[in-house]
Design goal:
This protein is mainly alpha-helical and 107 residues long. The chain has helices at residues 15-31, 40-60, 64-100. The N and C termini lie far apart (61 Å).
Length: 107
């Protein structure tokens, strides 16, 4: 844990925890932008780094910071699963539209 010399609450967590929280929040925020396409190849590394940092910090901290890291870890995993389900649903819908339009997709 870092020293809390200035007395402000922002200095009580490790910088890795703040980075993990910021990346996790960025990933969750990007999930809600439908008009602006945030590419999956941008979102996966953000989620992976966030999960890694949450996992590392979860093993090195205690108390409130450990609780935040645990919740953040599981929140990012849930967001990954939801994002994958939404993408799978969109791909299925596009496939059905192409079949309905009469495109020969099967060999």
């Amino acid at each position: 844990m870092s020293d809390n010399k200035c007395g402000c609450p922002c200095s009580c967590f490790a910088p890795m925890t703040w980075i993990a929280v910021a990346l996790g929040a960025l990933f969750v925020l990007f999930m809600f932008f439908e008009a602006v396409t945030i590419r999956w190849w941008i979102m996966l590394p953000i989620a992976a780094v966030s999960l890694y940092l949450f996992g590392v910090q979860r093993g090195q901290t205690s108390g409130r910071e450990k609780c935040i890291c645990s919740w953040g870890f599981w929140l990012v995993i849930a967001a990954l699963v939801l994002r994958d389900m939404c993408l799978s649903g969109q791909l299925t819908a596009a496939y059905c539209r192409m079949i309905a339009a009469g495109l020969p997709l099967h060999g």
